[in-house]
Amino acid sequence: MLTLDGRSALVTGASSGIGAAVAEALAAAGARVGLVARRADRLERVLERCRAHSPGSAMWAADLADLGALPALAAAAEDALGGVDVLVNNAGMPKRRRVQDLSAAEAGDVMGLNYLSPVRLTLALLPGMLARGRGHLVAVGSVAARLGPPHEAAYAASKAALTAFWESMAVDLDGTGVHVHVVQPAIIDTGLFSLPGNDPPLSDLSDALPPGEVAEAVLELIGNGRFERYVPAWFSEMASGKAADVETFVAGVREWTRERVRARDAGAADERAAPPG
Prior knowledge:
With 277 residues, the chain is of the alpha/beta class. It contains 9 helices and 7 strands; from the N terminus they run βαβαβαβαβααβαβαα. The chain starts with 7 loop residues before the first strand and ends with a helix.
């Protein structure tokens, strides 16, 4: 069982879902945990649970889309936590929309929060890790980074960019004592699938996994030092199959999408035709 006694961790998007589960798992492992998200009321509840394991935990209510404020946030976390040994970049936003319905501003917003924000926060905290000769930089990506699902162009591109940055960073930091990890979750039971401003998901959400499974994967990577972990693990086979034959994969996703859209539209038509009451 991973022990992080005497270490500190900073988790973004920690007010609910995956971020809250990761923060609580790190605190249970002994780390002082810093929580970051916009919603102070929800952060306070997560902080209370973290402090049951790790009394030195703290929180910052902040908008991570404000890129200019990230260096000050990093400095405050370093000061309050006595340095940051583990950074978990989890905060992000979805944007389920066909590209023909997507605006440039929306694509920019997704890239800013999902890619530029974690990169800037990482670069702000990296010098301290390098000076101490230890650290773990974790990105919560998505299987969308490898598989390019329909109606997810903006989101998939942001997670692909994040994954690519992490891959290069893993090589650049070789031998420094700072380790680099990315978790690629599939469908997880969080509020991201019900946020306004997004098309209904085409995937079946009945098989959504609990956020705790992603938290377990994060602790597993920190413990074993590996770079990437899919949740569930069998998605790695799908990603490797796509890489081996992209044309067949894209053709299959097109057909799957046609079937799902037809089924969705038929269900909507049946609902409209049903008598009231």
